[in-house]
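Quick one before lunch.
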Amino acid sequence: MLGLMQSQQLLISSLIEFADRHHHEGEVVSRRVEGDIHRCTYRDIAQRSRQVAHALDQMDLGFGDRVATLAWNGYRHLELYFGVSGSGRVLHTLNPRLHPDQIVWIANHAEDQVLCFDMSFLPIVKAVHSRCTTIKHFIALCDADKLPADSGIPGLQSYEAWIASHGSTYYWPEFDENSASSMCYTSGTTGNPKAALYSHRSTILHAWAGALPDALNMSARDSVLPVVPMFHVNAWGLPYAAAMTGAKMVFPGPAMDGKSIFELIESEKVTFAAGVPTVWQMMLGHMQQADLRFSTLKRTVIGGSACPPAMITAFNDVYGVEVLHAWGMTEMSPLGTVCTLKNKHVPMGSQEKMTVRLKQGRALYGVDMKIVDDVGAELPWDGKAYGDLLVKGPWVISEYYKGEGDSPLVDGWFPTGDVATIDADGYMQITDRSKDVIKSGGEWISSIDVENIAMAHPAVAMAACIGMKHPKWDERPIVVVVKKPGADVSREGLLAFYEGRTAKWQIPDDVIFVDAIPLGGTGKMQKTKLREALQDYKLPGL
Ligand code: ADP
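Model of the adenosine-5'-diphosphate complex:
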């Protein structure tokens, strides 16, 4: 017997319609490429996303055609989120930090038909447009009078002129909720980039679960600042969750430096911010130097790479901001786990709480996870046994775009490439990425642990641990370190700092000081580049 409930497709258009109806005064504030602050409401976003839908219809784009963006976080990008997906096209957020050749490869692979870009990316578009063979329309996200006359880009139009001639009444099409809504390519640290192709259903379920109190805890009382770019896994779903809850949105545009982010948090009374550790590192550095304090920020979700304990302590103890350590990946939309405490942890002392907070957290409802050994046998949830982490759920990919039926799944589970433990309370902790783990004398050394200890030293700004070939031990760890400006520590001083903080055999064999560690398009340390740079390096004593 079937239930007698209405069967309504979960479509992204319903999010902006909901926000328009129930939170029409909800604010959307953006720092623009032009440098000024732009203010509008969810009603404005709803009306303009309907104009976008009309404009796409007029371009004669088919259902499922890809519309690409090269854009910072801002209101026009948000309108495209709803207008493109809502009208049945697929929003493809290109990562402007990639090399132009990679952008060309990705745009051609996705067969993008339209490219909407912020004016700060005009030089990239000029460099790539003639090689992006499927793109028929170029739209600059600017006012009509800001359009450059001699761009050399065929048919270039301004976004404002493009949508201006269309009405703000639009009947969003109804279609199967499993239809594709957006796509995002993985950073492609190995091989060619691969795309996760999200659906309307997966996007809505992900936003719904992500907004829950034990995940990101979003509400109409929040002012939300996604520092995580909208071109990085849909800004972790925040634009959708914000429309779902009516939270105020604050967009940083291109100004990602510590000072600009801090100023925006204060001026827009931000209660909740989201970003990768490197962004927060810059902001905390600025706050320390200028002796600043937050007045409204309550919590921040940090993920994308392991959050160093020193950062959790700084936010928690110095600034009174709760850190939600989160883990996920492009293939998971991205949220898999978020670290929030259970009731039994509440009375614990701060040291004990810290051991919980350092973990990547508990699975969101909808995500199932397990750890397995080399032969695929499931390992116990005891917080000690570590193995390959596999996941499944309605917002985890089943295959890559153009995967031609080739499934990356193992018995229905997606192998994450991460190595982790899970404790009896279900808290997962990443030990490493399987390709970064250091295999020494038959044992594994977690590069994250080695980095976290270095990061706890007051003179260290950033640390990357990599394994170096060793004739006896197979591999030995070394740590590559960037010092804080004006601070100093010697090689011996840092190695001595490890004493008593980890097992002797896990202490790195060497410290190499550098001016900067290469960061990838999503702010993660690029260890492959470091390995390349150190290919002639010899471990001490060899
Ligand atoms: P890519 O896989 O292309 O590097 P993603 O942004 O999808 O890009 O990265 C996902 C990976 O990032 C995860 O598999 C994991 O290795 C790492 N990661 C994400 N969040 C965390 C975290 N909180 N702690 C440790 N590693 C993390």
